[in-house]
């Protein structure tokens, strides 16, 4: 039998109508493709069956998670070279496989030959890290708890390894011209996360004695910073029991139990307003389009007149046909079940419809690329331990997801924005400084 790699490359290039930008190493150790390119390692022909039955991102992801597909060399460069094949091609292939799309007889023949190379067996079951237990209505209280547990209840030690001492799982705020210092030079991830926490507190104009609600409070980093540095009384709500246990331990260790409360609670169940300020950082992506108006109205109702909301949220680019939007299949199956992204304009409109006055929108897209690269560096520095703390498949999911997301932010396919909104009193005085972005100025009244 002839070597597999040259056949794979020739067939792929015929199907794609262009050169394959990476080198290929097949399960028989044969290689083909550009000599200086990253190497796509196909360890088992099962990977081909997954891709043929689920062409596009999901099939590739399943092969990656199962360890049947890997990259040797620079992962970012490999993903960048493959971007047009993975992200920028419509992932709308019917269940019956690639033959359904191949109209060119030559392409159909190439797909048949690829199927023969993959072997006659049916596609293997998805790796077990894939989320497949989704009982209940989408974005119901029960289903949202399950989705959050899938993502966050994978072990606090794993997140300590990836996130570092700050334990902040959202975009950091880097200095101008910064490049993360992964070798002891330049600003650290912890510096940038501390700067982000303080930026939020200053935008919210927190003062001693005020009440702060942090929706989706994670491991408690923001409420700890706000209570320690600004003297507020803070409540953080999360649906993750592991996060809550970790956050409560931190609160006790810092002696802040009289000022900080950590609850396992859905934001829809919070009923002890009014609060002077609300932060929602990296949580609104879990809300969903159908529930967003409810989310905005609930937060508006929990704020005192004059209170501020800081909504920190990932956004996608708008589509010409918004009804054509589909949730990313890999992210939905392996990372954030039921997560949805919306254009920033839609988010602003829904906040305004709820009664908020939107006063500032700050786009910090480039900051997320830097943050994700720092997380990937943490993961890669101790990957074997990360795999032991969860599973090898879960560690591989996080490496692929974070590296691909870093490129998505850098290529402007997605962004992240901090939206500052106010429940403006009936008299119209919002209490903000006249000069925008001068967050250190005192609030009138």
Automatic annotation (TrEMBL):
Coiled coil: none
Top-level lineage group: Bacteria
Molecular function as annotated in GO: methyltransferase activity
SUPFAM superfamilies: S-adenosyl-L-methionine-dependent methyltransferases
Keyword Membrane: no
Protein keywords: Lipid metabolism, Methyltransferase, S-adenosyl-L-methionine, Transferase
An annotated GO BP: methylation
Family according to the record: Belongs to the CFA/CMAS family.
Name of the protein: Class I SAM-dependent methyltransferase
Higher taxonomy: Bacteria, Bacillati, Actinomycetota, Actinomycetes, Kitasatosporales
């Amino acid at each position: 039998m002839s070597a597999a790699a040259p056949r794979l490359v020739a067939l792929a290039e015929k199907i794609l109508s262009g050169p394959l930008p990476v080198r290929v190493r097949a399960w028989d150790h044969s290689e083909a493709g550009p000599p200086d390119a990253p190497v796509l390692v196909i360890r088992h022909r099962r990977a081909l069956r997954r891709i043929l039955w689920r062409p596009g991102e999901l099939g590739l992801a399943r092969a990656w998670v199962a360890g049947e597909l890997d990259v040797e060399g620079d992962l970012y460069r490999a993903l960048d070279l493959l971007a047009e094949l993975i992200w920028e091609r419509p992932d709308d292939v019917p269940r019956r496989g690639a033959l359904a799309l191949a109209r060119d007889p030559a392409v159909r023949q190439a797909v048949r030959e690829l199927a023969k190379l993959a072997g006659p067996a049916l596609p293997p079951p998805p790796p077990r890290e894939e989320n497949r237990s989704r009982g209940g209505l989408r974005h119901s209280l029960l289903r949202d708890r399950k989705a959050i547990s899938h993502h966050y209840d994978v072990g606090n030690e794993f997140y300590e390894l990836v996130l570092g001492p700050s334990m902040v799982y959202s975009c950091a705020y880097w200095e101008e011209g910064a490049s993360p210092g992964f070798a002891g030079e330049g600003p650290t991830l912890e510096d940038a996360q501390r700067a982000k926490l303080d930026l939020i507190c200053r935008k919210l104009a927190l003062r001693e004695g005020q009440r702060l609600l942090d929706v989706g409070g994670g491991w408690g980093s923001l409420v700890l910073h706000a209570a320690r540095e600004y003297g507020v009384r803070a409540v953080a709500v999360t649906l993750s029991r592991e996060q809550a246990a970790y956050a409560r331990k931190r609160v006790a260790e810092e002696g802040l139990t009289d000022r900080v409360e950590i609850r396992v609670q859905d934001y829809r169940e919070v009923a002890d307003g009014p609060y002077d300020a609300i932060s929602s950082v990296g949580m609104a992506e879990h809300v969903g389009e159908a529930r967003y108006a409810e989310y905005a109205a609930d937060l508006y109702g929990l704020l005192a007149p004059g209170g501020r909301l800081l909504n920190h949220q990932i956004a996608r680019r708008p589509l010409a046909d918004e009804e054509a939007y589909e949730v990313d299949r890999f992210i939905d199956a392996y990372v954030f079940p039921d997560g949805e992204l919306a254009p920033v304009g839609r988010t602003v409109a829904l906040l305004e419809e709820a009664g908020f006055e939107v006063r500032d929108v700050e786009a910090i897209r480039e900051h997320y690329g830097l943050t994700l690269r720092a997380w990937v560096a943490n993961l890669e520095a101790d990957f074997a331990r990360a795999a032991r703390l969860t599973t090898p498949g879960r560690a591989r999911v996080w490496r692929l997801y974070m590296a691909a997301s870093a490129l998505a932010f850098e290529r402007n396919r997605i962004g992240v924005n901090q939206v500052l909104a106010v429940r403006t009193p009936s008299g119209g005085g919002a209490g903000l400084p006249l000069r925008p972005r001068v967050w250190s100025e005192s609030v009138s009244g």
